[in-house]
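Title: Prediction job returns without error message
Component: structure pipeline
Severity: low
Priority: P3
Assignee: unassigned

Description:
Job completed but the reporter wants confirmation the result is attached to the right record. Sequence as submitted:
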Amino acid sequence: MKPALAAIVAATLMLTACDQVSSASDKASVCAEALGLTNLNPNLDPSELAAQAQDKANRLRELANQASDQDLKQNLVTIADSYVALEQRRAAGLSDVNDWVQRNADNLGSLRAACF
């Protein structure tokens, strides 16, 4: 192999490796923040719960827009949607949130799988 071609191949491999490291780093930071956002106490005052749920849903959607991994992106959107659903459920005066808690636990399991 000619030296110029070898240099081009080496440079291409280095750029590919750097892109993979950058992508993994980005995914790790998105996952870390997303998993940190997933705690929510459904027994809060309704107005406080609504505000927290909306804030978390908004941030999860922002993280989804940053994610390049499609599975991760979809999991973030699903969890954001679940917080909006909880907010709507509480606003409607429906106090039984057991089904939401179970769905959210399933969603968190899917997020963890997409992250790791």
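Comment from assignee: result matches the submitted record. The longest helix spans residues 3-37.
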